[in-house]
Design goal:
three-stranded mixed beta sheet, Butyryl-CoA Dehydrogenase, subunit A, domain 3, 397 residues, Butyryl-Coa Dehydrogenase, subunit A, domain 1, globular, four-stranded antiparallel beta sheet
Length: 397
């Protein structure tokens, strides 16, 4: 990216890069070791007003594009993968609210988000559905006891990442108790609307700072809090593509830092034996090529999304959904391959936990990528789509 003109405020990506390198990276080992929320990084993000980056400027936000937010996720994840992932998950929810929250309640909340730098989480999975986010047991129930226009809901959420730290949670639920499990809506709940009872703790191999505990959530609110568009359409138009783009950008940050450490190791070896190219440089070249492949597919996906924005017809085509699903599968596999190639480059220096080239945390974090909405589930869905998808000449065929 080009540098900002003299006197201009630093860009979103520049501010995220500074926080990632100066703060998130400094605390990344402790966040991982203690499986704790990256408080220091998010205090800094609030100070820089980066939590409201995607909120429209007329509501006090930054009006940032998806490309700018993707660059910020990448920059933060280079320092701490959990910080980058939490920021990505927050912005995914912001995008859903910005794109589909049109009434006064939603706009007032967006203004609060920008002014107070609220952190948004989501509750889309349920213990009863085995992680299938497109089906819900939980249902919105009209509250007959307190007058018209109010509802209650109860959800046994197998995961609510950073639930303890969230100020707002977007919750999937059946439209009403008589609706089929796939007839879902997205409900926006502020901290005053819900109560959380922790049911499981997040003790995972990687992404430990996301604090993805399980909860029983009970809530009550007014019907204006429910986003009007059916969740299936909202997911196709916003949540699915934005999720895969921002997750992929976060994984790119992990991969980029791994390659940076491998490059530093190769340079140290070259200085130790002047005039020779270290044998491990071949592995570095392999890692760099895969990193470049990741960048290319992410930039292509962002461009596809930008071309389709504002057109529900394009955003809901099978070919667009296939492109976004393929993006997720491709980058989630590549991040692991890049980190593994970087470890092979550094040898024992990358395998050990006590060297500047250590890559154990990167590898553990990278392994989460294929499991967040499992790749097998996505590929099975793509295979079904391909059976009914017509050959065409549209922009995504």
């Amino acid at each position: 990216m080009n540098a900002a003109p003299a006197g201009a405020a630093p860009s979103l990506s520049a501010r995220a890069r500074a926080i990632g390198a100066d703060i998130a990276a400094r605390h990344a080992e402790a966040v991982d070791r203690e499986s704790r929320f990256p408080t220091e990084a998010f205090d800094a993000l609030r100070r820089e007003r980066l939590l409201g980056a995607m909120v429209p400027t007329e509501l006090g936000g930054g009006g940032a594009s998806l490309f700018e937010v993707a660059a910020a996720c990448h920059a933060l994840a280079r320092g701490c993968a959990s910080t980058g992932m939490i920021y990505a998950m927050h912005q995914i929810q912001v995008a859903c609210l910005v794109n589909h929250g049109s009434n006064g309640w939603h706009r007032e909340l967006m203004a609060r988000m920008a002014a107070e730098q609220l952190l948004l989480g989501s509750a889309t999975t349920e213990a009863e559905t085995g992680g299938d986010i497109r089906n819900s047991v939980c249902a919105v129930e009209a509250d007959q006891g307190t007058g018209e226009g109010r509802f209650t809901l109860a959800k046994n959420a197998s995961v609510i990442s950073y639930g303890d730290q969230s100020d707002v949670i977007l919750v999937t639920a059946r439209r009403n108790p008589d609706a089929p499990s796939s007839d879902q809506v997205l409900v926006v709940l502020t901290r005053d609307d819900y109560r959380l009872e922790k049911t499981t703790l997040w003790d995972a191999m990687g992404m430990r700072g996301t604090c993805s505990d399980g909860y029983r959530l009970e809530a009550a609110g007014v019907t204006d809090q429910i986003l009007p568009l059916a969740y299936a359409d909202l997911s196709a138009q916003t949540m699915l593509p934005v999720t895969h783009i921002l997750w992929s950008s976060t994984w790119l940050g992990i991969a980029a830092d791994a390659v940076s450490r491998a490059r530093a190791f190769v340079r140290s070896e070259a200085r130790r034996k002047p005039g020779t190219t270290p044998a491990c440089a071949v592995r570095l070249a392999e890692a760099t090529a895969k990193l470049q492949q990741m960048k290319t597919v992410i930039l292509t996906a962002i461009r596809q999304y930008e071309l389709a924005c504002g057109s529900p017809e394009l955003l809901t085509t099978l070919s667009f959904a296939t492109a976004m699903g393929t993006l997720k599968v491709t980058t989630s596999e590549l991040v692991r391959e890049v980190v593994e190639a970087a470890i092979r480059t550094c040898g024992l220096a990358g395998y050990r936990n006590d060297t500047p080239y250590s890559l154990g945390r990167h590898l553990r974090d990278a392994h989460s990528a294929a499991l967040m909405i499992g790749n097998d589930r996505i590929m099975s869905h793509i295979a079904t789509q391909l059976l009914v998808q017509r050959d065409g000449s549209g922009p995504f065929e």
